[in-house]
Amino acid sequence: MDFILLHLIISSVGVILMRNGALMLSKGATALSTKSQFSGLRVGLTIVALGTSIPEVAVSLISTFKNEETLAFGTLIGSNTFNIIFGLGLTTFFINIRVFAKSIWRDLLFAILGGILLFILLNKQLIFNIGANYLTKTDSLILLFCFLLYYLLIFTNKKSRREISLLNAQKHSSFHDSNKQAIIRNIVVGILIICVGAYIVVIEALLLSSTTVLTSRFIGVSIMSICTSLPEITTTLVAMKRRRQDIALGNIMGSYIINFLFTPCLLTIKGEAFYDYTLNYDLIFSILICILCVTLVLSSRYYILNKITSITLITLGILYYITTYLRG
Q: Is the separation of the CB atoms in 75 and 225 below 8 Å?
C-alpha cells in the first residue's frame, strides 16, 4: 500500500507540471491568435492541440518500446472520450459554445471519420477476415495521409467573414501588449513542461500496472487517459474563462483528430502494434459520443452547444466509467 501511495504522490507531481504547462501554452496560444493572422480556431486546432496531445504521444512512444500497446491504445481512446465528455461537458455547463457551420462539416465530421477509419484498420480481421488484430505500417501510412490532408484543409480554407471580424476584435484583447518573444517563450516552455510531466505520469502508470492486478486496458482508458487529458481540460477551461470559445473547441477537436490519426502511427515504429479487441467497446463509445455532439449541434438553434449538451455528455460519461470499472 505504501508503494502504491508513493507512485500516486510522484504521479501527482507530473500532473501538476502538465497543468502548469497547459496554462502557459494557453496563454501563449491566445496571444498568438491575437498577434497573427490565424483565427483562434486554427490556433486551437494546430499549436494548442499538438501541444496538449504531447502526453498521449509520450505514452505511445514509451509504451511501444516497453511492448505495452494495449496501454497506449487504451490511453488514446480514453483520452478522446474524456476530452469530449468533460472538456465540452464542463465548459458548456457554464458557457454556450457557438459552432461555425464550417467547423461542423470539416472538424467534427473529420473527427468522426478518423475514428471510424481507425476502427476499421484495427478490426480488419473481424470485418473483412484479412490480416490480424495488429496496426501495420501500411495502416499507419493511411492514417498519416488523412492527418496531413486534414491540416492541409485547415490552412487552405479561406477565412469566413465571421473569422475576419473575430480577428479584428482580437486586436484589442488583453494580450495586445505581449511581444513575440514572450509568446514563443510561453508556448515552448509550456510544451516542455507538459513533456516532463507526461513522462513522469507515464512511467509511474507503467510501474503501477506491473505491481497491481489492474489490467493495462483499464489503466489506459481510465487512470492514464484522465491524467494525460489534464492539459486539454485545463487549456479548454482557461480559454473559456477568457471567452475564447474558438480556441477551446479547436483544442478538443484537434486533440481528438491527432489521437486517432497521428499518434497511433507512432506505435508502429518498431513494427506491427498489437490491438486488444476488448478495446472495441471503448473505441465505439468514443466515436458515438462524437456523433452525438454533431447531432446535438445540428438539432440546436444557431448551432450552439449548451447545458443540454453538458448534462447529456456528463451523464453518459458517468455511466461509461461505471461500466468500465465493472468490466475491470
A: yes
Q: Output b/e per residue, 131-161; b: 16+ Cβ within 10 A.
A: eebbbbeebbebbeebbeebbeebeeeeeee
Q: Where are the domains of the chain?
A: 2-327
Which residue, among 79, 82, 112, 90, has the nearest Cα to 295 in the 3D structure?
Answer: 112
> Which residue numbers in the chain have pLDDT < 50?
160-161, 164, 167, 170-175
DSSP letter at 272 equals P
Angle between helices 2-35 and 230-241 (to 10 degrees): 40
Rounded distance between C-alpha atoms, residue 52 and residue 248, angstroms: 12
Q: Which residues contact 79 (CB under 8 A, 6 or more apart)?
A: 55, 56, 225, 228, 229, 232, 255, 259
Q: Nearest 5°: CA angle at 70, between 127 and 124?
A: 15
So what's the architecture of 2-327 in CATH? Up-down Bundle (1.20)
Closest CA to 258 of 151, 169, 166: 151
Q: What's the pTM?
A: 0.84
